[in-house]
Amino acid sequence: MAKKKIILDVDTGSDDAVAIISAVLSGEFDVLGIVCSFGNQPLKYTVPNTLQVMELLNSDIPVFAGFGVPIAQDLTPGRRMNTLVKEAGGVVDGKEVEVHEKSFSYLPPAKTKKAMEEHGVSWMLRTIKKSKEKVTVIPVGPLTNLATVLRMDPSVADNIEEIVCMGGGVYVHNITPLAEINFYNDPEAAKIVINSGVKVTIVTLDATHSSWFGYDDADKMEKIGNPAAVFAANMLRHRISSANKIGTRVVEKSALHDVLAVCAVIDPSVLTDVRHQKCDIDIGGNFADGALIVDNRPFAVPENPTYIAYKGDGEKLLNMLCSHLENF
Ligand code: BDR
Ligand code: CA
């Protein structure tokens, strides 16, 4: 059977890096390309970080630079900072600690891999349009690139099999009391994608935090023993320890958010509570900016094929990831 054609849209990023590794090593996909956006770090870092991962994997999958800024959010002075309560970094004992390093200290800098010259958005549009089979898009950063593709040519939606994105939170939030960072980083883009009419599965923070990992899980990964597994283990350890140091989390756990989205495309049963619900994104520029609003009222009828994932199966996810890492 032909492999499922996918496009990854990433803001690499510690968990993005492991998600790319999982997707490539799984052997389940024909990965057409990887488009980068700003997000965990500015674009000038997320592109080289993605290339570092491609070099680790010795992969020739093309990497493209996409958008470095949100569609509209920054046009309103102070809009992003008004509601921001905690950044994913800080200075601890005189040293900068970041959940997502600017460049991965756990990998050598990319020497041979280079990003393609074409803009990621024009490439994505062209590639989806011309594909004989429908393409699945897995965005695990801000939705700026995909939203722009859908705006440039709405008919592209006909050739998208489904979108499985990591973003939003119903009861769990991170960047503000009401928003998750991927959606918060470009609320208008998230709104465009969710209302595009394409089937969208939203892998929320509720799902990723219900299937998070600890140091013992990192040890299991490391035991696999190859460079990809050691890197994934180090990423997980780094995520746990940096969040503890900065003070954004007390427990010694961390979600590999973006990996859950990738694995859900391979085996949807890794998401254990998925509900077809009416939802939208707040773009008001106030306290709820970027919030995923889910209409939980019993009479609410979903207007779009939007599926909200509330829970993940952590054991299944770890087994899937480890089996992918073993393929290195
Ligand atoms: C999401 O935001 C980023 O920090 C992660 O890479 C993940 O995609 C979690 O809120
Ligand atoms: Ca991400």
Side-by-side strand order of the widest sheet: 3-2-1-6-7-8-12-9
Bound molecules: beta-D-ribofuranose, calcium ion
Helix count, DSSP H or I runs of 4 or more residues: 12
Q: Using only CA atoms, what is the Rg?
A: 18 Å
Secondary-structure element string = EHEHEHEEHEHEHHEHHHHEEEEH
Query: In the residues, how many domains can be counted?
Result: 1
Please identify the oligomeric state. single chain
Q: What coarse outline follows from CA principal-axis ratios?
A: globular
Q: At the fourth CATH level, what is the homologous superfamily?
A: Ribonucleoside hydrolase-like
Report on the biggest sheet: 8 strands, mixed
Q: Could you tell me the number of beta strands? A: 12
Describe the structure.
This protein is an alpha/beta fold and 328 residues long. It has one domain (4-325): Alpha-Beta Complex (Inosine-uridine Nucleoside N-ribohydrolase, Chain A). The protein is 37% helix and 19% strand. The protein has helices at residues 14-26, 43-57, 79-82, 120-130, 144-152, 181-184, 187-194, 205-209, 215-224, 227-246, 257-266, 314-326; strands at residues 4-10, 29-36, 63-65, 89-92, 95-98, 135-139, 160-166, 200-203, 271-276, 279-281, 292-294, 306-312. Strand 1, helix 1 and strand 2 (29-36) form a beta-alpha-beta unit. Helix 1 (14-26) runs parallel beside helix 11 (257-266) and helix 5 (144-152) crosses helix 7 (187-194). The radius of gyration is 18 Å and the shape is globular. The mean pLDDT is 94. Residues 13, 15-16, 40, 140-141, 166, 174, 180-182, 205, 257-258 line the site of beta-D-ribofuranose.
